[in-house]
Amino acid sequence: MNFIRGGVEAGGHAEKIISGIGGFIGILLAMWVSQHYLGTQGAALLVASMGASAVLLFAVPNGALSQPWPLMGGHVFSALIGVSCAQLVPDMLIAAPLAVALAIALMYYLRCIHPPGGATAITAVIGGAQVHDLGFQFVLTPVLINALILLLAAIAVNYAFPWRRYPARLQKTVKAVQSNSNDHPLGQADFRYALDEIGTYVDIREEDLLRLYRLACKHAWQLSDLPDVITPGFYYSNGETGDSLSVRRVIECSGTGTDALITFTVVAGEGVGAVKTMTLAEFTGWQRYEVIFKNGEWHRIRQASMPNLH
């Protein structure tokens, strides 16, 4: 089954086209800036690393490696290291891998791992006379400017689509109804501790990991850990059967109290694919319970405390 995300099938044609358009806009602007400062040859080398960044920003805008700090820090600090290696290590055979190695280590320590940063570091070493003549100016123009261009393009292109809001913190996570139920068996702080204990970089935010845990538990036990909360990304049914069945996936919850609004897409029943907005009162009056799609059917989520994991 292909799930519906914000009215667009996840991984479907529309999603791919949006990503492609964003990449075109970002790289078009980056190439124009790079050619102005480096000429065609130098621009070709630098834009390669920006092209890799464009894939992250427009294909996986919610990914941890795609966020503004990894993007900006990854490119800028890698450029600094690359220029330094180019100037201090005369043997290019040593300078190039050394630049990449130091860039990786520094990005790791600064928590701004961005894979295209490695390409930026090596470009500063092997980019030729046009790059070398810029010296540390290379860090500002064109690297910093290009990274800013991609950042602004990603914000602008993704903003029109609630499920793609960039940066990820622009995603609205306000709960429309406050829960009176018990706390989660595990919380965000628990996952942050676990990630720190692993000691390696994992490309996922604590919030996403918590949501994965909740969804996995729902799928395994068909139990709701938050029966009194209308949650973005979850599915709700009118409780009917047959042709009268209707299932809606919540895209966004905005506002609080009587001013709360629910934006949803219809995933089963009449009007499949439609995206609508209604008040919280109207939505809760329509919905009877939360559901999950499992084994080819919609199943009711039982409102019971989720079992603890041992």
From TrEMBL:
Transmembrane domains' residue ranges: 17-34, 43-61, 143-161
InterPro entries: HPP, TM_HPP
Taxonomic placement: Bacteria, Pseudomonadati, Pseudomonadota, Betaproteobacteria, Nitrosomonadales
Protein keywords: Membrane, Transmembrane, Transmembrane helix
Origin: domain of life: Bacteria
Protein name according to UniProt: HPP family protein
Domain named HPP transmembrane region: residues: 14-167
Pfam family, one: TM_HPP
Species, as recorded: Gallionella capsiferriformans (strain ES-2)
